[in-house]
Amino acid sequence: MLRWRPSDRVEVNSFYGNVMIPHDRNMPLIFTGGAYLPPKVERRYFGLDWTISKARRHFFGSLATVALSYSWQVRGGLFRWENVATQLRTELYRNVQPDGSANRTVVASEDASSRSTSGEARLSHTRTEGGRRHTIHVTARGRATRRNYGPTAVVDLGPASIATRVDAPEPEFLFGADSDDHIRQLTGGIGYEGRWPGVGELSLGVQKANYEKVSNLPGLSPLVTKDDPWLINGTVAAYLTPKLVAYAGYTRGLEESGTAPANAVNRNSAPPALRTSQRDAGIRYTIAPGVNFVAGLFDVRKPYFTLDPDRVYRQLGTVRHRGIELSLAGQPAPGLTVIGGAVLLDAEVSGEAVSLGVIGPKPVGIAGRTLRFNADYRLPFFAPLSIDLGLNNRSSQAAGSQVHEALGGEQLTTGPKTTVDIGARYRFKLAAVPAVLRVQVTNLFDSYAWDAASNGSLRFSDTRRVAATLAADF
Questions:
Q1: Where are the beta strands (DSSP E) in 360-464?
Q2: Which positions ≥6 away from 284 have C-beta within 8 Å?
Q3: Contact indicator for 278, 248 with CB cutoff of 8 Å
Q4: Residue range 30-43, pLDDT digits in tens
Q5: Which keywords fit this entry according to its UniProt record (predicted)?
Q6: Is the model's pTM score more than 0.90?
Q7: CB distance 379 to 385 below 8 Å
């Protein structure tokens, strides 16, 4: 990060980042052939040595702030992001049987890329009256994105097993034509922020978006999708007591959708942007100085895209995520820092596909309960050293969208998962430079579980691992 302040009214912050990934080998994707989970196999890499992915990423931008006067301010930013995957290899194990046998397929692509340029300008005017502060924002945003999915080849490598590693030579890939899409979005809006110390806060905003996506698929005419919705947001907070704040909010937005996964027959196809809505309300309570508790209700709704029984990635309904979120964070005692959170989620898919029994009502890969707790304690008799503990728990997940007669018309689910992590940090000077040595043991009790992804693939949880890292702040 580079900061430049030519005067007390002007500040410019610029950044640049570059990431090279010359050798990335992911665990193969597992798909069972029926209403059962894969067998409990040894947790090791069972894929092919040559299914390697390579990529490079770089991003840069600048954000400038100019104070025109005491009450007027201009902020603007320009940003660039590029991700180029020169080689992508995804290994699929389909129709996995109870003994671990499967059909193995490799999906390969070359020179897939995503490049995006975005910018924003905001003019703000602030007015104070007594202790009250009012701010009006006028904003303009723009984004241009081009995604090239690269030529793709799919090769069937025949029988294999997730229980026993079976090697195979790398074939000659016959790549087909590539596909791409271009996205342009312009948004203008106006917003208001009001703050009254000790009483409350109010935020309101309205935006008009203009969105266009042009998708180019091999052998087809360009597919153009457009949308120009009004987007609104509003939040209100009331200070009920010096320690207790109640809040509520509503947002209607436009969200870019992901692309079809590698196991879809229409892989890499990109659905249009999704109209979403979110409602939330809750309280923030200061238990003690530096210790805060938050409890909130939320309700998020958006179109639901997943694979149908023919493995076509398309919209199959609307998904609603509603639930309770709890968090506790702070320093309840000298040297002790705790962060805890819980999400109790009722996620449900509705629509014609659910009513007809094409898919089940539970979104794939979503857990109804997620619990996390982390604590770090700095030893009072040796301040450079601290020890830490992490507890993680989730409930079962839907492992596929289909319903099965063998399961009484229900979807296949994974079991719950609980892991415990322990570690320590040692802070010291390395050639007069602050440094931290970090040692951590993850999944201390080596628990075994299956995790489900949104595309219906499964992978076993990581084994117990010990990691050591050294970080220095130059």
A1: 369-378, 385-394, 398-404, 410-413, 417-430, 433-442, 450-452, 458-460
A2: 244, 245, 247, 292, 293, 294
A3: no
A4: 999 999 999 999 99
A5: Cell outer membrane, Membrane, Receptor, TonB box, Transmembrane, Transmembrane beta strand, Transport
A6: no
A7: yes
